[in-house]
Amino acid sequence: MTMTSPTTNATLTTENLAVTYTGNREVEAVKGVSLEFAANRLTAIIGPSGCGKSTLLKSLNRLHEIQPNVEIGGDVRLNGESVYDADEPVPEIRRRIGYVPQEPTPLPLSIYENVAYGLRIHGDYESKADLDERVERYLRKVNLWGEVEDRLDAPGAELSTGQIQRLCLARSLAVEPEVLLCDEVTSALDPVSAETVEETLADLKEEYTIVMVTHSMDQARRLADDVVFLYLGEVVEANDVETFFENPQHERTRAFVDGSAIPTTGAVDGEANGDGDGNERATTTDTEPGEPVVAER
Amino acid sequence: MTGSTETESAADGSSRLGRRLLAERLSGYWFGGAGYFAVALFALIVLTLLYQSLPLLAEYSVVQALTSSNWDPAHNEFGFLPAIVGTVYVTLLSMAMGTPIAILAAIYIAEYAEGRTKTIVSSFIDVLAAIPSVIFGLVALLVVVPFVGDYLAPAVGSDATGLGIFTVSLVMAIVVTPFMISLAVESLEALPDELRESSLGVGATKWETIRSVLLRAAGPGIFSAVLLGFGRVFGATIVPAMLIGGQTQLPESPLATGQTLPTLIVNDFGELMSLPLTQSALIFVGLLLVVVVWLFNFGAMVVRRRLRRRWQY
């Protein structure tokens, strides 16, 4: 292991990914989503509440499986390898595709042990000194080291929510994931803490492939390289951030970006989707040309 | 009020406000009254027990009463040691048998069981917790006592009849385990899913998540569940009275007959209360039970507070 983490260059793609809740009422939360989350870029998934953003995010590392009665269709691929038919056990997949929840969630452990948690589980360290060094490295990476170095043994929960959210990022990064999934990680924070976490994410996207769910268009504009607009479980538009906001290709995207009512019917057909111009960016990939990714309701 | 004129409704409004404010002021008193009533009741019970214990304490020192093993009310000998030892035996044995099973079952129900299985298993546990303990005593007389007397005791080379400390402990474990399971399940299920997601999200397995995260986070709640079970065993009366054999002597083995503090009161209550000193001795036993439970709850509160701080999430 070298001192500096290498950039990971991991690409995450979904192929007709569908998530259906099969409880009392059958709900298709994510409908045939095909996307490419490009390496070392930050992709923001935006959309109105209940559009399936979080479900989509959690299905990327199979974390939705802790809920009963969920069915999955299609597949997710990490660097081309299937996540759902993987030979690799699920915990190893989740180590490679980390997840940070919306609510700042310290584990019931000390600050130090919160970061060391994954390392201890995977046995990814050679000695106590090595573990110390790694804990410090990842706390530095999320700009938290200076604030906690003299109280590493204090419970993680005693930090402020903004600090806790950075602690959670450090915990996720410590197991050296290739992809990081962030679920509205600033929405529970006050504006100042949110800004600090955003700055951290901005630093991190140089090295990691990050998929971030957000309900804030401003945040997407500030942070994202690519933007995916999800509506009623379907991808309406996926484009690089400039095109998405300055020149949206879809009536619904335009309406959402302007803050006006999103048309539920109308001129949405597959043709105006990103046409795969070969750039490394999140675009809807036409895996099955016969089926437009955005199905008409 | 749509029909009333403006002035009427204004006057109505002010008297209505007056009534609301009066109710608001009184509410503090009656809620407070109910609360202080509980405190007063506790004080009254302790004082009564203390006052009625004085005749015994005038004749014997507390140390003497607690350390003597000679219990013979007819000759004014009041040694509580056999009952104390019996109580400690029963409580420790029951908890040793019940607690691990309760925690394992709670983990299964809260984290592994799904759908119909979960509903069925947890509803059966709730039913078990609701059965009056006298029923457990009766069934144990028919099943556990013969089993212990005919099979277990001979197997370990004892000539015990089946009535005794071990039988009581086993049955009390069965009585309190469902109760502890219910409470422990509640504390596990109250945990936010984000804890599970955070742990699984760095590649932990389900078991690692349970062991390192969930059991800690739910730790104070599980600790309370175990303590409430402990309290129930400690103060248990009917099951020990039915199954312990009622011999006030130091038990030679866990299979031996014996006495617990509550059974001492129950067994001697009727016939010996006419003797003043015996009455005082039995009331002293009651005082002992109350004080121990009180100290125990207090200690539990301190420990729980520590755990909650240490394992906060």
UniProtKB/TrEMBL annotation, chain A:
Gene Ontology MF term list: ATP binding; ATP hydrolysis activity; phosphate transmembrane transporter activity
Record flagged with keyword ATP-binding: yes
Lineage: superkingdom: Archaea
Keyword line: ATP-binding, Cell membrane, Membrane, Nucleotide-binding
Positions of the UniProt region annotated as Disordered: 261-297
GO BP term, example: phosphate ion transmembrane transport
GO cellular component, one term: membrane
InterPro entries: AAA+_ATPase, ABC_transporter-like_ATP-bd, P-loop_NTPase, PstB-like
PROSITE patterns: ABC_TRANSPORTER_2
One Pfam family hit: ABC_tran
Name by which UniProt lists this protein: Phosphate transport system ATP-binding protein
From TrEMBL, chain B:
Annotated ABC transmembrane type-1 domain residues: 84-300
A single Gene Ontology CC term: plasma membrane
Keywords: Cell membrane, Membrane, Phosphate transport, Transmembrane, Transmembrane helix, Transport
Chief location category: membrane
BP terms from Gene Ontology: phosphate ion transport
Location(s), subcellular: Cell membrane
Cited NCBIfam families: phosphate_pstC
Family: Belongs to the binding-protein-dependent transport system permease family. CysTW subfamily.
Listed name of the protein: Phosphate transport system permease protein
Organism expressing this protein natively: Natronobacterium haloterrestre (Halobiforma haloterrestris)
